[in-house]
Amino acid sequence: MRTTITLDENLVRELVKVSHSKTKTAAVALAVKEQIRRTKLKRLADLLGTVEVDEEAIREGNKADMKRSQWLDEMGAGNGR
To answer: What is the pLDDT of residues 16-47, one digit of tens each?
Structure first.
C-alpha cells in the first residue's frame, strides 16, 4: 500500500542506519512491525496473573494426551510401521 506521511528526516536517516536497511521504506516497515510486536507482547504481559488456571484440568488433559499418543503408537505398530 502506498501512503504519504511526513517524518523527521534525521529520524528516518538514523532508522535506516541502525536497522541496516537498504531503503527508507524497508526501515519504516521494519519499525512498524517491531512496534506492533512490542505492543502485542505488552498486552500479553499485562494478562499475567489475570487468568485463573485449573491445574487439575491441565494434569487430566496431559494424561489424556499421553493415552492418545500411546494408542496411536500401538495402532502404528499393528500396521507394520
So the answer is: 999 999 999 999 999 999 999 999 999 999 98
What is the maximum alpha-carbon separation in the chain? 68
The pTM of the full predicted model, rounded to 2 decimals, is 0.59
Of 55, 57, 35, 38, nearest in space to 46 by CA: 38
Return the SS3 of 69.
helix
Per-residue confidence band for 81, with pLDDT thresholds at 50, 70 and 90: low
Nearest to 19 by CA among 35, 4, 5: 35
HSE-CB at 40 with a 13 A cutoff on CA atoms is 6
Residue 32: closest CA among 42, 19, 20: 19
Residue 46 has a CB neighbour count (10 Å cut-off) of 9
What is the CB neighbour count within 10 angstroms for residue 28?
Answer: 17
